[in-house]
Amino acid sequence: MVSFEEISKNKKSTVEEAFQVFDALPPVKVEELIGWKWKGAEIVTGHPLEGLLDASGWFGKEFYDEDNGQPLVVYNTDGNDGDDTFPCDPLLFFENATTGKPIRGQAATLEAKGSRCRLKTILHRGETTASMFYDQTPINDTFRKVNDTTIFGVMDNKAVPAPYFFYLVKYKKL
């Protein structure tokens, strides 16, 4: 069986291998996500939206408490500085990203005005674990724990039934 270390190093996997790794990991508690800015990276599996986040300057996520967070934190400039980011409104992000409009440098018009996600504990693939729900769209990201600083996630998007895999690494305490 392939390991998370192999998948994260190569940033590539089959859906089957990614689910094998995901299913073998322990659940993560909502409390472990709260209070952190997380740096994200996608895992290439052939998902139709692959590359969209990276091309649009996706940095990661922020979770303030169980009911408030930001699912799409993006770089503000081309500098790729994790401190030069802003929380992007998901609907505006997806509209701009899918039509090729810029996102970086557009904080004045694309910044989320308030929280855009919440965390809940759900039963997913046989385990009770933390999941993040977008407030404005039928998407949720469910997580498993790799270690104290890294979580493995899978996005479930009602409009695109294929799973989208990514991982998050603790970047900074909020």
Overview of the molecule:
The protein has a 9-stranded antiparallel beta sheet with strand order 4-3-2-1-9-8-7-6-5. 22% of the residues lie in helices and 43% in strands. The longest helix is centred in the N-terminal third of the chain and has 10 residues. The model has no long low-confidence stretch (mean pLDDT 95). The chain is globular, with a radius of gyration of 15 Å. It has 174 residues and is of the alpha+beta class. It has one domain: Lipocalin, CATH 2.40.128. The protein is built from 6 helices and 9 strands.
Give the helix level as a range of percent: 10-25%
Task: Write the CATH homologous superfamily.
Answer: GXWXG domain
Within the CATH hierarchy, at the fold level, what is the topology?
Lipocalin
Instruction: Report the portion of residues in β strands.
Output: 35-45%
What is the level 1 CATH name? Mainly Beta
In CATH, the architecture is Beta Barrel
What overall form do the CA principal axes indicate?
globular
Give the overall pLDDT as a whole number. 95
Please, how many helices?
6
Number of domains: 1
Name the helix and strand elements from N-terminus to C-terminus, one letter apiece.
Answer: HHHEHEEEHHEEEEE
Overall structural class, as computed from helix and strand content, comes to alpha+beta
Extract low-pLDDT stretches: none
The order of strands across the largest sheet is 4-3-2-1-9-8-7-6-5
| Beta strand count | 9
Distance between the termini: 36 Å
Largest sheet: 9 strands, antiparallel
